[in-house]
Amino acid sequence: MVIDKIEVFVSCPGRNFVTVKVTTSDGTYGLGDATVNGREMAVVSYLEEHVVPCLIGRDAHAIEDIWQYLYKGVYWRKGPINMAAVASIDMALWDIKGKVAGLPVYQLLGGKSRNAVTLYAHANGKSIEQTLDNAAQHVNNGFKAIRLQSAVPGLKVTYGVLGDKKDYYEQQGNRPLPPEEDWSTPKYFAMIEELFIAARKRLGNDIHLLHDVHSRLTPIESAKLGKLLEPYNLMFLEDASMAENQENYKLIRHHTTTPLAIGETYNTIWDCKDLIQNQLIDFIRVAATHAGGITALRRITDFASIYNVKLAPHGAPDLSPVCMAAHMHLNIWAPNFGIQEFVGFGNDELKQLFKHDYKVVDGMAHVSEAPGLGIEFDEEAAKAFPYKRSYLPVCRLEDGTVWNW
Question: Is 52:105 a contact under the CB 8 Å cutoff?
Fold first, then answer.
């Protein structure tokens, strides 16, 4: 059974998604996600011009060899564009293998380690009160873990809180250029503890609370924040600082016992190797789409387990339902799974394009028992939602200095 055709679809049902379809000589097909938010067409070009021609006629069952071929077989390894392309092919081949075997992918990985996948929901708001109102609604819906993000007083826009905008397209207005946002660390510190004081008072101690700093702080500022939030027993503090210099997290770890999570921008095991083996983090948040697919994320998961680091895959709305399906199969298998970020199954437009039978009950996802990844893509429906150029925002300090977004 050889690879006969590879197609790349770009659609925009609210956000841009790059979906890859690999079809074999007997008509079996698999799906993969190759979305890199804000650089979608770069991945499309890389796939169509460089990857696809190399794979036609290859054995579709040779997942490991094809992964190594696409990674080691090029001089310019790693990077988000390259690894998203590798990931999409890898996911599609696992999907195919599951369909041929008549088994869901998690069975090919070794079977279930748990009955369902614990999720954390997002609670955002223009104020602490609104954030906690939204959090309470999630609790009412059965969620036991919630990420809290509240607008910072004095800033026009805060990460995680779009205000009256529905998405980044609206922020861009009529000019498809990156929107710009301000950041102030002092203003953030003036409100952040109040958010968690109020959260524990209203939600109690049985709900897991999480928070995403989005790399806005220096390491010593992150250390201060972690120490400040210790009394409120966070499940984890996400992206406290940039970790391109992984030594940064030694400083943070030295000063706080608040659990740390990072990894959504990482593309290979090498990006997180030192953080994991030196036990500087507690949760690794790599996404299958951006870190080389199921094959690569399984390796990272096994490596992390040696050092008591748990898997908590990135689950933002710019990852397609195909990526979420891949995460669900990895999560139900991984013995060191921690928690999965969850922002819902998308809007009505997205649901027209991607069909699945994943269900959420009491804040836990139940994985599809369909062969393969358990997801379908409607190519005809996708034609009604053409690609729209989009960017993520650029962040600046209040004096105009470009900062981390």
Answer: no
Q: How confident is the chain (405 residues) per 10-residue block, as mean pLDDT? A: 98 95 98 97 98 98 98 94 98 98 98 98 96 98 98 90 61 74 96 98 98 97 98 98 92 98 97 97 98 98 98 95 98 98 91 94 97 97 94 94 95
104 within 8 A of 372, measured Cβ to Cβ: yes
Between CA 72 and CA 59 the distance in angstroms is 18
Q: What is the pTM of this model?
A: 0.96
Give 318's DSSP letter: T
Residue for token pair 């074999």: 24
Backbone angles phi, psi at 6, to 5 degrees: -130, 125
- Listed as own residue / partner, the contacts of 131-140 with beta carbons closer than 8 Å and 24 or more positions apart are 131/195, 132/198, 132/199, 132/202, 132/203, 135/199, 135/202, 135/203, 135/207, 136/202, 136/203, 138/363, 139/203, 139/207
Residue type, 92: A
Q: What are phi and psi of 244, to 5 degrees?
A: -60, -40
For the record, the structure tokens of 79 come out as: 């990077």
Domains of the chain, by residue range, sit at 3-102, 108-375
User: CA dist 40 to 11, 80, 347, Å?
Assistant: 10, 11, 20
Domain 3-102 coded CATH 3.30.390.10:
yes
Burial of 195 (0-12, 13-18, 19+ CB in 10 A): buried
Q: Residues 199, 203, 205, 210: what is their CA dihedral angle, to the nearest 10 degrees?
A: -50
Domains 3-102 and 108-375 belong to one CATH topology: no
How many other C-beta atoms can be found within 10 angstroms of the C-beta atom of residue 388?
14
- 8 A C-beta contact, residue 352 and residue 14: no
Cβ atoms of 87 and 373 closer than 8 Å: no
Pairing of strands 354-356, 310-311: unpaired
Known catalytic residues? 159, 214
The architecture in CATH of the region 108-375 reads Alpha-Beta Barrel (3.20)
> Phi/psi class of residue 112: alpha, beta or left (left: φ > 0; alpha: ψ in -120 to 50)?
beta
